[in-house]
UniProtKB/TrEMBL annotation:
Family: Belongs to the RecD family.
Summary of subunit composition and partner proteins: Heterotrimer of RecB, RecC and RecD. All subunits contribute to DNA-binding.
InterPro entries, sorted: Coronavir_polyprotein_1ab, P-loop_NTPase, RecD, RecD_N, RecD_N_sf, UvrD-like_helicase_C
Residues reported in the UniProt entry to bind ATP: 213-220
Domain RecBCD enzyme subunit RecD N-terminal: 37-148
Alphabetic keyword roster: ATP-binding, DNA damage, DNA repair, DNA-binding, Exonuclease, Helicase, Hydrolase, Isomerase, Nuclease, Nucleotide-binding
Functional description taken from the UniProt entry: A helicase/nuclease that prepares dsDNA breaks (DSB) for recombinational DNA repair. Binds to DSBs and unwinds DNA via a highly rapid and processive ATP-dependent bidirectional helicase activity. Unwinds dsDNA until it encounters a Chi (crossover hotspot instigator) sequence from the 3' direction. Cuts ssDNA a few nucleotides 3' to the Chi site. The properties and activities of the enzyme are changed at Chi. The Chi-altered holoenzyme produces a long 3'-ssDNA overhang and facilitates RecA-binding to the ssDNA for homologous DNA recombination and repair.
Species assigned in the record: Rheinheimera aquimaris
Catalytic function, reaction form: ATP + H2O = ADP + phosphate + H(+)
Name used for this protein in its record: RecBCD enzyme subunit RecD
Keyword Cell cycle (UniProt): no
Amino acid sequence: MQIDLFAGEHEPEPQAVFHPALQDLTQMQAMLQRWQQRRWLRALDVQLPQTLHQLAAEPNPLLWLLCALLCHQYGRGHSCILLQDLLQDPDGLLSLPPQNQFLQRFTDRPAVVLKGLTIGDFRAALQGCSWLATAGPAPLVLNEDRLYLYRLYQAEQRVKQHLSLMLSTTLPLANAVTAELDILFATPQQTEPDWQRLACVMALQRRFAIITGGPGTGKTTTVVKLLALLQHGAGGALNIKLAAPTGKAAVRLTESISGALTQLPAERARTIPTEVTTLHRLLGAVPNRRSFRHNRDNPLQLEVLVVDEASMVDLEMMAALLDALPEQAQLVLLGDKDQLSSVEAGSVLGDLCRGAELGGYRDDTMALLQAFSAVALDKWRGEGSALNQATVMLRKSHRFDAHSGIGQLAAAVNRGDTGAVELFAQYPDIELFSANQLSILKATVVAGYRQYLQQAQPGPADERDNWARSVLGSYSRFQVLCALRSGDWGVEGVNEQISQWLHSSGIINRQQQWYSGRPVMMQRNNYNLGLMNGDIGITLVDPLSNMLRVVFQLADGSIKWVLPSRLTEVETAFAITVHKSQGSEFNHCCLVLPPDNSPLLSRELLYTGITRAKQHFSLLCAAPALLRQAISRRVARSSGL
Ligand SMILES: Nc1ncnc2c1ncn2[C@@H]1O[C@H](COP(=O)(O)OP(=O)(O)OP(=O)(O)O)[C@@H](O)[C@H]1O
């Protein structure tokens, strides 16, 4: 057979046939409207290109599409869109449509619309576009084929600049540090490195350090010892501040710091603060503004700052925090890198901790750490980034032992082991319900909430704060978590179902919108009230006025009584999303998964849900196959960090 080397030479170039919406702006606008009607996009996503067009006309349909998708991704917590990833798997990257059902039915789904496009087409649509920042500020930024909203790009740049500056200096270690470490850390015969001790050594030497680890691995214990070492070196004169992203997390850190201080010699414990503030309060949030009172021009007054639950800190907050840090201050971030990322855009801790498991310690870091370790550390040697040289991962949980199903389940899910499903049959502290076991779920939920609801009956006037505190304490023993917000199996549907069950069991009377015992969660920060997004309050009859009030515990442990009418943006909290549960722990958690394979079900979501439980974990899941799919799916947020 003869091969015609020149076949095709005279044939016309194949014309790429693009989707009609890419060829006509009116069609693109109509398509975006349809996506909004199907709830694939938010009104805001569709509005953004329209608004920009009014300011500077840009009739390119692809540009409109990119702009709407960028806004959509921002709403889902991504700092940017990586154009290459968008081309590779549009439906997957965008999680559009959000439920996989009937996907093939839509001929205008992202994968079909973007078919045939190349990265060059994206660049061409953006080139010379007046919406794109080239010299000065403009709404969009393209950097190394990552498309950003300007604000997020700015925040990312600021974080990068601050961190590289902080990572470029090392601090001298005092000669007496070994003796001090020996006082604080017991040295039994070891076979594994004492990462808590090594975390202290590393953080003493850095202006920026990260201590990451799962629940109960001793992050708080370690940081308390670190602060004792720092104070000892400075003669107790350091101005140390402790902060957490939410009020709830701040209250929890206050409790665990107080617990950890009891393990220290009294004269050392005295030099360490126990007061924990929220980041918003620390930075001085200005009502209805994005900016803070403390910033580059008005830095914070402190020498050491510890931020707990750092996985909940979003990109813009991290940028604001670093802006406000005085030049010589030391910053230590604590958190679990494997948890879900912040509710707002960014996955700062996850991004910064990439490679933390492997160590990746270079020669100089190895020399430093090895000098303080009785066990050889060669396994963790590598050529990691500057960040790796400032990160220690604590690996041993002191809370969950080998007999704990929660610990085993969390670890298996975290390493993507689909065999995790089998663990439910082996441990008494974890249980799995299928969707047709609703009666068992009902019994679990009613029993779970009964105690706090009984305590919520009108209490004594002279002890009203203590009573409120104990009701809030009882409430935090049990919590239903959902993977999704909307739908029958989301927070909306499950809250409705639970209220019905509790009402029909005679435990609540929900004939009015507000009733005694109603738990509510803040959906936005309210600076006037000093309440933050995610704070949970409980409705009680105030014994002083006999009127309904909602009680919240503030970061300093005090109780705030608020008129329900002042709480406009709250939702019932019998069920809350896993996302919003971050920073909280409950004795017993019950996680409800939807019956279909939503792209939102991921390993990180399961891990975060499981690790909210301290003693008992229940899971409602229609089929084990669904659980295996969720364990196999990872969520990766796009960012340039
Ligand atoms: N090296 C250790 N040896 C024995 N017990 C420890 C050790 N480190 C911590 N613990 C204990 O383990 C428990 C959890 O420690 P800690 O609160 O410091 O962990 P954490 O990582 O901050 O937990 P979480 O993030 O889940 O709140 C505490 O009771 C603490 O006293």
